[in-house]
Amino acid sequence: MIIAPSLLAADSGRLAREVVRASRSNADWLHVDIMDGHFVPNLSFGPDVVRTLRPLTRLFFDVHLMCSRPEVLLAPFAEAGADQITVHVELGEQVTPLLWKIKSLGRKAGLAVNPPTSIQLAQPHLDQIDTLLIMTVNPGYGGQPFIHETLPKIQQAAAWRRELGLAYRLEVDGGITFHTAAECARAGADTFVSGVGLFQHHRLAAAVAKMRAAAVSAAPPRALAAAPALALV
Ligand code: DX5
Ligand code: ZN
């Protein structure tokens, strides 16, 4: 299980200290939301923020681009220190070249699907990605309530992963609390982004541990059928 505090919910007046706090919390990833004021009606961080924060922690930097023209941002974020870069499936024909570009920059590639968007649109890209991000709120703002209608998409994505023998991570983002993390884990998610659900807690490490425990105890046992068959000679 991967627990990824979302920087959007950190105290923006003291981002450096917040990243150190996240780093000491036993979290696995730091989720960094990039908003362009066009793909979503809000603005957040640019590559310079990632460059400044990168030396403060060894956390994996999970950069989520909610941007209409991500092609101009891939190299700047890769150079700034992103470990994974996620683009949205709603960009249509651009998605395949964007994923190739991310891989060619030596970074892991993620693909995000908004709540109103059919999960079927992600299917042609599954063998190209490291992470499938199922948005569980409409992107743009932190602190929104979890949309339960997204749960069947998580189940579908987990079923495809089993059936196709793929290994992409199944990430959820938006309205993730201890309770909804468990619901998503039950549906097959293994990577949990949480902003307000974690940063609102004074003791971040305890909150991370509690979310991890909630996810682990709700997760279905690994299907034996998913293990690769031994070759018979
Ligand atoms: C929403 C962002 C999320 C956001 C989640 O547009 O993609 O990563 O930070 O925030 P919470 O967990 O507070 O809903
Ligand atoms: Zn996000």
Describe this structure in words.
The chain is of the alpha/beta class. It has a single domain (2-226), classed as Aldolase class I (TIM Barrel, Alpha-Beta Barrel), CATH 3.20.20. 33% of the residues lie in helices and 18% in strands. It is built from eight helices and eight strands; from the N terminus they run βαβαβαβαββαβαβαα. An eight-stranded parallel β-sheet has the order 1-8-7-6-5-4-3-2. α2 packs parallel to α3 (74-80) and α6 (178-187) runs parallel beside α8. The longest helix is centred in the C-terminal third of the chain and has 15 residues, at 204-218. The N and C termini lie far apart (36 Å). The relative contact order is 0.15. Bound molecules: D-xylitol-5-phosphate and zinc ion. D-xylitol-5-phosphate binds next to β2, β8 and α7. Zinc ion (ZN) binds at residues 6, 31, 33, 64, 173, 193.
Distance between the termini: 36 Å
CATH architecture: Alpha-Beta Barrel
Strand content: 15-25%
Q: Write down how many β-strands occur, each being a DSSP E stretch of 2 or more residues.
A: 8
What is the typical, i.e. mean, pLDDT? 95
Level of helix content? Answer: 25-40%
Q: What small-molecule ligands were found?
A: D-xylitol-5-phosphate, zinc ion
Determine the CATH topology: TIM Barrel
What is the overall number of helices? Answer: 8
Biggest sheet features:
8 strands, parallel
| CATH class category label | Alpha Beta
Silhouette: globular
Domains counted in the coordinates: how many?
A: 1
Structural class: alpha/beta
Identify the strand order in the major beta sheet: 1-8-7-6-5-4-3-2
Element pattern in H and E? EHEHEHEHEEHEHEHH
Name the CATH homologous superfamily.
Aldolase class I
Name the poorly predicted regions.
Answer: 223-233
| Gyration radius over CA | 17 Å
